[in-house]
Amino acid sequence: MTASAIPAAASASEMASAIRFLSMDAVEKAKSGHPGMPLGMADVATVLFTRFLKFDAKQPRWPDRDRFILSAGHGSMLLYSLAYLCGYDDVDIDQIINFRQFGYRTAGHPEYGHVAIAETTTGPLGQGVANAVGFALAEAMQAARVGKDIVDHHTYCIVGDGCLMEGLSQEAISMAGHWRLNKLIVLWDDNGISIDGAVGVASSEDQIGRFVAAGWNTAKVDGHDHEAIAAALAAAQTSDKPTMIACRTVIGCGAPTKAGSEKVHGAPLGPDEIAAARTKLNWPYPAFEIPAHVLAPWRQAGIRGTAARQAWEARFAKMDSKLKAEFTRTLEGRLPEGWQKAAADFKRKIAAERPRLATRKSSQDCLEVLTAAIPEIIGGSADLTHSNLTDTKALSPAVKAGEYGGRYLHYGIREHGMAALMNGLVLHGGFIPFGATFLIFANYLWPAMRMSALMGQRVLYVLTHDSIALGEDGPTHQPIETLAALRATPNLLVLRPCDSIETMEAYEVALLNTSGPSALSLSRNVLPTVRDFSDDNLVAKGAYVLSPAKGARKVTILATGSEVSLALDAQKMLEDKGVAAAVVSMPCWELFDRQSKEYRAEVLGEGTVRVAIEALGTFGWERYVGLEGAIVGMTGFGASAPPDKLFEHFGITAQAVVDASLARL
Ligand SMILES: Cc1ncc(C[n+]2csc(CCOP(=O)(O)OP(=O)(O)O)c2C)c(N)n1
Ligand SMILES: [Mg+2]
């Protein structure tokens, strides 16, 4: 390159202007989007990406990169501008020009798997910051396993007022402070504005005080002063606690008349305002054109981390070969050799011993085997360890501040935080997380579970006390509509096993399901072993004939989980009356729906009377029993009483199945 071809260096504020114009022009072209946040945080992002973030745009998935999470996902153009400017291969200018258009990666909100720069999908406010805590915890736990030579990175997260107003953020902040995740750095876009106007119309708390109370370090800077931002970031990098930097910014900074107002939050600025911004910021370049003297230093910033990556690769090459193989295996999400043999041995033993157990206890027995065989499984409960039965020998000890070698996680009474944290843990790589609570409280963690499904991540939800059979805790604790709503969630496998053998099969399905989360619905009530050992995983078929009819089948009884044994009782009672009935165990609707038409017809017994029994809400069973079939289940809320009384009162009995069958024959 001749001297004259080297572009004159751009100032840092010109580099920030590049983000501002790409963002406002892309939103203008799309006729929708959120310019306010990218304009307001352009300076903070410029300092972070050009001076602090350890990354390599040409190797965006390098394992020891710093993680950057845009929790304020509506500011997606900030992320896409950074990707284009830094030279990520998957975001060229065409992607910016076609922001929010079908078939392009630059979706309305950043989506995991669409653009490499998006470490997680964000948009539902508060999720990103809770994911960030999971990323930071995964980093600490992985470093404890393989050493800081191989794992030593920071997690940076930009949050807005909205993220901090969401209750989820409190759960996340508490966990990060409690575990003292000092490599987590949160940058708050403190612009005093949200959609309804001044934040003060709805909120008057002391955000800094809130973080301090949770055990964080905090700092306050002018979010347009590059040196002040840099000083705060440098201090945060060596902090002994997680750090929150309040960056005072002007929303829409650079828009001459609209900056500082909610009007720039989520609407195109309009051609006049954009033209005036070009004059004000001395940016004479056409839309989507970044002059060479600005683009070059950005591209340079994009490969700033190359040397660090190469140094890491050299250390990685010298790593102990066994440790290296394990690190690589867990990062790639491959399960270790031998785990399925351990699972099969367990099932054979159960088939011989035929214990009577609640499936929550079966689950603990399964976890005992699986956590011993699969070291990357980590997990715990939202303060219901002794009810969910999630503690195992291999998971002990629990993770504590400064002690990240353990595998058990006391999530505290923070179901939503638990689920969002698990998304961060799994997205970071290296772990298979599970989290437990009562099935009813799945609705406290729903938004994050939905994100596990949307992102296609292997997260395991262990949900116990899964029907009115939990008894005396009463209707507040008895799930009714919960399972139907879980089943309505795309890409979530809902598994309701009936005994220890099905429970192990359900865990095998969940662990082999690498493209989405699974929810296990487990009983508190004690159940007999009804299954025999099978070389094939029958739960993986979704439903199967557990007990065939003796003679020509007249009735088909469909049941899941704890009601399978009631179905078997009903089958005998019908037999005594000369009616041949088959019992179908149906632990997973989603998997059954994927089977061939012939298989489904055979299992469902086309032409027979069909009766479903499940001690939960009846919603949705019509699709399997037809409108003429019967559904024995709950149509309203439960009540507080011993389980037997409740089953009798609500008519969820073998007799009810018999009566419904006879009435239809
Ligand atoms: C859970 C959730 N609720 C509501 C919204 C809709 N929403 C998007 S941005 C926003 C306001 C956010 O305010 P702030 O974080 O201060 O962003 P700023 O206006 O400063 O860019 C709202 C309510 C959302 N995305 N997620
Ligand atoms: Mg705001």
Explain the overall architecture.
- Helix content is 43%, strand content 14%.
- With 665 residues, the chain is an alpha/beta fold.
- The protein has a 6-stranded parallel β-sheet, with helices on both faces. Strands 1-2-3-7-6 form a 5-stranded parallel β-sheet, sandwiched between helices.
- Helix 16 (385-389) links the parallel strand 9 (377-381) and strand 10 (408-410).
- The longest helix has 20 residues, at 127-146.
- It is elongated.
- It starts with 11 loop residues before the first helix and ends with a helix.
- The structure holds thiamine diphosphate and magnesium ion.
- Residues 160-161, 189, 191, 193-194 line the site of magnesium ion.
Shape, please? elongated
Largest sheet: 6 strands, parallel
**Radius of gyration over all CA atoms, rounded:** 28 Å
Chemical compounds bound to the protein: thiamine diphosphate, magnesium ion
User: In what range is the share of β-strand residues?
Assistant: 5-15%
Kindly report how far apart the N and C termini lie: 88 Å
SSE class? alpha/beta
Q: Provide the residue-averaged pLDDT.
A: 97
As residue ranges, the low-confidence spans are: 1-6
- Tell me the total number of β-strands: 20
How do the strands of the widest beta sheet line up side by side?
A: 10-9-11-12-14-13
Number of helices: 26
Q: How much helix is in the residues?
A: 40-55%
